[in-house]
Design brief:
The chain is α+β, with helices and mostly antiparallel strands and 460 residues long. The chain contains 14 helices and 19 strands. It has a nine-stranded mixed beta sheet. α4 (63-102) runs antiparallel to α5 and α6 packs across α13 (427-437). It is elongated.
Amino acid sequence: MQKIALGSVKDEKSSPNEDNEQRFLLTLRIIIKKTKNMLTLKQLRDDKELAIARLAKKGVDAAPIIAKIEELDDKRKAIQVELDNCLAEQNKAAKQIGMLMGQGKRDEAEAMKQQVAQLKARSVELSADHQKAQDELQAQIVLLPNFPAEIVPEGRTAEDNVVVKLVENYSELPENPLPHWELASKYDIIDFDLGVKLTGAGFPVYKGKGARLQRALINYFLDYNTAAGYQEVEPPVMVNEASGFGTGQLPDKEGQMYHATADNFYLVPTAEVPVTNIYRDVILDKKEFPVKLTAYTPCFRREAGSYGKDVRGLNRLHQFDKVEIVQLALPENSYEALDGMVAHVEGLVKSLGLPYRILRLCGGDMSFTSALTYDFEVYSEAQQRWLEVSSVSNFESFQANRLKLRYKDENKKTQLAHTLNGSSLALPRIVAALLENNQTEEGIRIPEVLVPYTGFDYIK
């Protein structure tokens, strides 16, 4: 793990089965008919080598996909040329038929009509071929992730992330401190076994003061966000396929999302999905920026392939609570907005009195959609490990391109907006750190800022 001084944050985180993949490709055409290319053809074709180099920073070998895109684009253009010529011949022949009829040359006109019928049939074939090539082209483009920003560090794994700030606000704990899952059992505030009975592993049941602590954290986080100018919204926790596509979870993360197949809805992996999609197919006025929204939702993630000690207790769940912040920004202001969001989340983490660090994620550890991401981690003193509690990202125009989220500039020209989001905060690991780092001989001490929300200052 690299470490550097913070300075300005601005200057410095089961594949789908065959049936689901086929179903998704069948419905993809409906979604992309209204959507520009995710990474535009112009970006990919004007400087192919640069595009390959930038995507390589994310660990993606884009050369074969871009080669396929070029092949399909050339095919699409060739079909379009033939189709245009065919339609032009139809128009020319139609005029000739009229002239021949006017001259009384009925036999020649009838022969020309047969030629027009053949041209029309060929035009129908070419139109279908063009649509197929267009769909294949779009299906390849959506496989490519967003370009990483220039300041994204090189690297493939979490070990290559850069620590931009470290606050070592450690607690003095009793001898042999307990991990949170043992504290949860000792004080009867979280029941993991009952969750297994009701649903399965990764679905804990919060009880008594544990449930009250969850509600207190959600309310505190929402109040903290609204005080900073974020408008609270309460979105659905199921979304349609277009929403998942718009923010980039589909097709990239389809295997990680819970899917209600009868209605083709997806349980949200984060409030980012429904909240950002509020502005899908919307054209804003420039003076409406920035748009700042916050929402609480339960979040659902299959977390396929997760196992081992790092997933014990609250460390990794299939259902968890999270409060999210989302911003829509003008392109020239989005990185200033990112700095502000990082500072906002830092203030929230700091208010809880936990040791924390801020990481700038390397290319290989970033999400499919992100151009630049900062992760927040809090230190779990009983487990002696860092736990991620927030990711704050700028997606630049990548999501807006998929969403058709645009604005009118001062010249009334339509431009793509930039989108950003951040966890503010995810509850499970915050709760884990709060329980472990605040354990005393008297019980678990509640941070001062939460006492007005919990109504108690200790879990005993």
